[in-house]
Amino acid sequence: MKNKITLAHGAGAEVSRGFIKKTLLKYFKSKSLAELSDSAKIKINSKDILFTTDSYVVNPVFFPGGNIGDLAVCGTVNDISVSGGDIKYISLGLIIEEGLDLKELEQILKAVALRAKEAGVEIVTGDTKVVERGGADKIFINTSGIGQAIADATVKARNIKKGDKIIVSGNLAEHGISVMNERHKLGLKGLKSDVAPLNKITKALFLKFDKDIHMTRDLTRGGLAGALKEIAEQAKKDIELEESRVPLSKAVKGAVSILGVDPLQTANEGKFVCIADAKKAESVLKLLKTFAYGKDAKICGTVLKTRKGRVYIKTPLGASRALAEHEGSNLPRIC
Questions:
Q1: Relative orientation angle of helices 250-259 and 174-183, to the nearest 10 degrees
Q2: What residues form DSSP beta bridges with 147?
Q3: Are residues 245 and 192 in the same domain?
Q4: At residue 12, does pLDDT exceed 70?
Q5: Same domain, 312 and 185
Q6: What is the pLDDT of residue 71?
Q7: 177 lies in which domain range?
């Protein structure tokens, strides 16, 4: 399979990052694109604008806690938000398979409308295509988002420094495990996707703490492990996670113990990681906990003084091991 695309190329981990850098970027010369951030910061009439795009192919289309419509809006909102932007407008592109039940389509569109209202964004343009049976899997969605940069918000991996604290906004792996449970009809109880818009939390963080917030990233494909590994490599800094402090719900703990899945490498759709100045970390945590989508936030790691671009896991017994990412994916088509 050396010269063929595999599911690993889209999993958000090491293979995926290598594919983007070695195959895709060589054809496109752009300073903004080379940053490989969740959104591109561009200038229009001297104003900083954030722009992002994403596609959604989740299987199944409906899952506990939401559907593909929820993902399409929240994912795009969150990409702009963790990049230091205040999102305003979204596009909606639909690729619909012939034979999709109209009632299912309307459920999806209703979810899009409700999430857009919750996030305070407007759907302003779109496109619809219908393909023959087998040409898609029920429905695929593409969304793009645009917003204004929040004053002085500069979140880049190179800004992190020794002693910075790693803060996770809540319980991890809920989306990935919920989709796995629904897809394979595993019958595990108490699982629900965490899909949610994070723009109100991130805006509050940037407005209050400004440059003390050094980096933020939403934790989708590749999970917390993938996000931190990418940040560490870009910053050429090492990061240590305390395994016992990583927030997990009781239901997810039970599920991963049965399934043998690593929650650190499992997708989320309503969580982000914040790397903040150590002196402000407790205040950042306190603010996060005032929001419904941040009530389970925890400080769970530190940026180290060493500079190898690695992520380490500190076990409850005090031992430390280098994080090894999966070559493939716990579950393809997670979003």
A1: 60
A2: 50, 87
A3: yes
A4: no
A5: yes
A6: 98
A7: 157-322
| Statement to judge: residues 142 and 162 lie in one domain | no
Question: 59-115, pLDDT tens digit by residue?
Answer: 999 999 999 999 999 999 999 999 999 999 999 999 999 999 999 999 999 999 999
Q: Are 204 and 294 in contact (CB under 8 A)?
A: no
CATH code for position 234: 3.90.650.10
Q: What is the pTM of this model?
A: 0.93
The answer, yes or no, to whether residue 231 has pLDDT greater than 60, is yes
Residue type, position 209, single letter: F
Residue 331 lies in a domain: no
Neighbours of 19 (CB within 10 A): 17
Q: Which two tokens stand for residue 316?
A: 């409850």
With respect to residue 35, please indicate whether it lies within any of the assigned structural domains: yes
Q: What is the mean pLDDT of the chain?
A: 93
169, 293 in Cβ contact below 8 A? yes
Cβ contact 230:216 at 8 Å:
no
How far is the C-alpha of 201 from the C-alpha of 208, rounded, in Å?
Answer: 11
